[in-house]
Specification:
By secondary structure, this protein is an alpha/beta fold. The strands form 2 sheets. The chain has a 7-stranded parallel sheet with strand order 1-4-5-6-7-8-9, sandwiched between helices. Strands 2-3 form a two-stranded antiparallel sheet.
Amino acid sequence: MALSDAPLLRALTGPRPDRTPVWFMRQAGRSLPEYRELRVGTRMLDACLTPDLAAEITLQPVRRHGVDAAVFFSDIVIPLRLAGVDVEIEPGRGPVFANPVRTADDVRRITAIDPDALDGTAVAEAVRIVTAELGDTPLIGFAGAPFTLAAYLVEGGPSKEHLRARAMMHGDPDSWNALAGWLARVSRRFLEIQRDAGASVVQLFDSWAGSLSPADYRRFVAPHSHAALQGIGLPAIHFGVGTGPFLADMRLDGVADGVGVDWRLPLDEAAAIVGPDTALQGNIDPALLSAPWPVLEAHVRDVLERGRSAKGHILNLGHGVPPETDPDQLTRIVELVHS
C-alpha cells in the first residue's frame, strides 16, 4: 500500500476508505508501561528533544495497538523552548513559564525572537527515525494553536478560565494580535520542520479554545490559527476541547481538512454543522475507557455509526488517553474498528 492510500489520509482527502482509521490522542505516552520505563530519570522536555527517545516513544503505540497513524511525541511548548523561552513541565501541573507575557513591553520582547531561527535539528532527526520505521503508516506532526500557547504564556502556567489572556484580547488588542500572530509563526515553523522531515499529516491542538465565546474566537483567535495552517501543504486536522458552540469556525474557511470533536457533541450533529466537505475525528468519551468492555464496545459502535454521516471519519477519543487507562482497552478498540 502506498502512503497516499493510507486509510487516515483517504478519510481526510477522499475517497472514503474501506475501513475507518483509528489513532488516539496522547497514545504515545503515559498509559504505556514501556513508556514509563523509558522515561525514568528524564524530564519531559528533555525526552522530547532526544531524537532516539522521542522516536521510540512515538513508535510504541503503533507496535502495541496497531493504530493507523503515529503522532509525533513532543509537547506544545517545545517550539517555545527552541525559541529560548524559559519553560519547564512541572509534574502534576504542566507547563510553567518563568517570565509570563502580560504587558506590551513583554510582548515586544518575546516577539523580537525570529520564529524562522528555531533550531529544529533534534525534532527533524526524530521524525526521520520514525518515518523510516513506519513505512506506509502516516506520521501526524502536531503543534499547539496560537490561543492555547498564548493562554499558557500570559497566565504563566495552566489555568481553567484563562482570564488574563481573555482580558488582554479586549484591553490591549494590539498586543494580543502581535503575540498571537507571532505564536502562529512559531507553530507553523514547528509544523514545517516536521513536514520537511517526513510527517504526512498535521494536527493543530487548541486545547483551551472552549473557554472563549464564539464572537471572541472569530475575532481574536481564528485568523491566527488560519495563518498557522494555511498553505502547509499536508492534510490538516484542527482540534479543540469544548468548541461545539463554534465548530463550523474550526474549519478555518476550509484550511482544515478535518475537525476534531470532543465527547460532548454526537458526530452526526457535528457532521451537519461542518457540512459535506470536512472530515471528522473523534469522539469516544475518554471516561468510558475504564468502563466494562461491553459498555465501551457499545459506545464505540455508536460513535462509528454516527461517524458515517461525515465526509470521512477518523475514530479517536474526544480528548487524550487518561494515564490510568488499561492499554489492552485501546488495543481492543483498534481490533473492533478494524473488524
